[in-house]
Specification:
The chain is an alpha+beta fold. The chain has one domain (about 5-100). It has helices at about 5-10, 30-40, 45-55, 95-100; strands at about 5, 10-15, 20-30, 60-65, 70-75, 100-105. The strands form 2 sheets. Strands 2-3-5-4 form a 4-stranded antiparallel sheet. It has a two-stranded antiparallel ribbon with strand order 1-6.
Length: about 110
C-alpha cells in the first residue's frame, strides 16, 4: 500500500515568495484530524523543515493556526530573490519536499 504524505491530508500545500529574503509555505489541511497530525510537534517541527530545506533550524518559523486547520512555515531564502543563483524567483516550487513528507504510521494514499 502506498504511504500517506502530508499532501494527502491537505487541500493544498503551497509556497510563495515572502519578499526578497524569505519563503513562506502553507499547508491547508482537509479536516481537524489532518491538522492534528500536521500540527504535532513530533511530526512537523523546525528541525524537520531545516533538514528538508537545508537551512538552520533556528531560522525556521512555524505557525499553527487551529481555527483554520493551517500550518504556516517561513524561513530565509537560500539566496536572495532575483540573484544570479536564484532558481525559483517566485518560490513556487519550494513546497514539493514538504508535500511529499511521509506521515508515520499511515498508509493508503488519499486521506478520507
Amino acid at each position: 500500500m502506498p504511504e500517506t504524505t502530508l499532501a494527502d491530508l491537505a487541500h493544498e500545500v503551497r509556497s510563495k515568495n515572502a519578499g526578497p529574503f524569505w519563503v513562506t509555505m502553507e499547508v491547508f489541511l482537509r479536516d481537524e484530524e489532518g491538522y492534528r497530525i500536521a500540527a504535532d510537534e513530533s511530526f512537523l517541527n523546525e528541525r524537520v523543515v531545516a533538514d528538508l530545506y537545508r537551512v538552520d533550524a533556528d531560522s525556521v518559523q512555524l505557525f499553527r493556526i487551529p481555527s483554520l486547520n493551517v500550518v504556516k512555515i517561513s524561513f530565509p531564502r537560500p539566496v536572495s530573490q532575483g540573484s544570479l543563483r536564484d532558481r525559483d524567483v517566485h518560490a513556487g516550487q519550494h513546497h514539493v519536499p514538504l508535500a511529499r513528507l511521509s506521515v508515520p504510521g499511515r498508509a493508503g494514499g488519499e486521506a478520507s
